[in-house]
Design goal:
Blueprint: H1 3-21, E1 26-44, E2 52-53, E3 65-73, E4 81-88, E5 90-103, E6 106-117, E7 120-131, E8 134-145, E9 147-153, E10 158-163, E11 166-177, E12 183-194, E13 197-209, E14 214-227, E15 233-249
Antiparallel strand pairs: 1-2, 1-3, 1-15, 3-4, 4-7, 5-6, 6-9, 7-8, 8-11, 9-10, 11-12, 12-13, 13-14, 14-15
Amino acid sequence: MNPRIKLLSFAIAMLASASAHADFVGLNIGAKVWTPDIKGSFRSTTANSSSISMNNDLGYKDHSSKSLSISLEHPVPFLPNIRYSGSDLNASSQSITSSNLSFNNTPFSNTINSTLDLSHNDIVLYYELLDNWINLDLGIDLKMFDGKVSMLDSNNNSSSIQVDETIPMLYLAARFDLPLTGLYIGANIQQLSVGDNSAKDSSVMLGYESKVGLGIEGGIKTFTIELDNANNLNTNLEYDGLYLNGYYHF
């Protein structure tokens, strides 16, 4: 079974279990489109490997990413609220380079087709510290990557490295509702720094939620990841751009 389907099944089971014990359950289902610019570089940890620029060497500029999410908030004491999201962060590019690049003990030159797949699932367990016209959530985000970095050139040289990492991140979300308007502003921050590895996923938004629970929000989302020798891969990457999210909250 696909890992994302397994995780979604797990999340739904948790929702059903909590619903059976709660007097009131709030459910939020959403779909997001994000259009980030991609910047930075990566390299393998093998000897004489090149630092490969996403822009100058591989020609990456922007990308379109889609994600789905489902979250549950409930009044069960001591049991955290839960949110699941699956994000498609798979980008490909073709470029012509005058440089001789080395990746994972393989030389690359001329026309290069590449794929950077940092698709991931998030399981967020959080508690509501405030829940009125000011909302404040605090918890942990388990960000689980299931992707790869791969390259193929016109000489049929090819190589890839799997990106199979789970990063626990501090989760903080704040939202301020503008009275009597349905409008709100807010921000989300997920962050971790351990040794030479760090990741940050943050967004600021402006949104509107109707009285029947239909909502739309837009803003700026930034995701950065620096890995040191993760599955023989080093990265220093940044995704930054506008997003639009539609949801139903009931």
